[in-house]
Amino acid sequence: MSWEDNVRKVVPYTPGEQPKSSGVIKLNTNENPYPPSPLVAKAIKEYDASLLRKYPDTGASELVEEMASAYGVKSENIFVGIGSDDVLALAFLTFFNSESPVIFPDITYSFYDVWAELYRIPYETKALDEEFRLKKEDYLCDNGGVVIANPNAPTGVELSLDVIEEILAYNRDRVVIVDEAYVDFGARSALPLIDKYDNLLVVQTFSKSRALAGIRIGMAFGQKKLIDYLKDVKFSFNSYTLNPLTIAVGAAALRDDAYFKDITAKTVATRERMKKELKELGFSFADSRTNFVFATHERLTAEEIFTFLREKNIFVRHFKKPRSIDNYLRISVGTDEEIDRLITALKELIR
Ligand code: PMP
After folding, report:
1. Is residue 83 within 6 Å of ligand 1 at its C-beta?
2. Which pLDDT score is estimated for 175?
């Protein structure tokens, strides 16, 4: 017998690499290539550091109220956390407490099975079809909860709201989490459905479309009862999560809707151009509604392309996972200039 027998052993999630060197074109973690709103820099500059003496507002009300007005919901319908990873982890802990397995696609955000393992939640994955589409029948079954990333990651594929609604209607007796980390890049949000379905939790983040991955803000929307259960678990774990500077920064970002719309539109335009150019070079991919493209090449392996690009200081993401995705690369949408350099490098390799 050793103390190690009592250790909760986990295989952690592996985040994308954050290279220390400069001069890297970083297209591997779906960060926004643009800086956050200038109002964010202003809020940081003007922040009164003496406020850090005190514990933060546990309700993060300045941020939550700004969010309520930006998203057209009540404050009681909002839960905030340290990035959507924190929100999702707490949602798994709160809502998935059944003997029946929680279900999600076999190819999706690779943190879901890590949380399920960590909390010892039974789970089952459902195979996507050949075109990385979810088969809705798989979600109309007995289960302990449902998790759907929409658009999905790393595939970029959007699921229609009609199908989401069918899944919600069938699963009235369990919680359905819709993880909308990438929804702002041209997909439809399930947010309007929270009034109708008390089992729906919509999770979003400031990390992608609001260019604030470093500040760590994520949120969940749902009916008050659902949000209150989430708060009970959060306040049984750590009351002080969002710090006051983060709260001020998040609220400032929300006040600049024009900037948000501008950088999002730029990313969408670059993505569409990137799709065209990648196609011409022999890549294929499912239609992406996100800030990345999940592509495979007709001739070269993903590994070969990954290694070549890395030597050129262009980082993309390669998941060495079984099934069909190990021959795919997930390439984040950068600035136009970054994508030009990516395409130039690829031409060198491919032609
Ligand atoms: N959900 C999905 C589908 C993601 O790809 C990510 C980013 N890794 C997250 C949630 C978490 O993002 P964050 O914690 O930065 O909000």
Report:
1. yes
2. 98
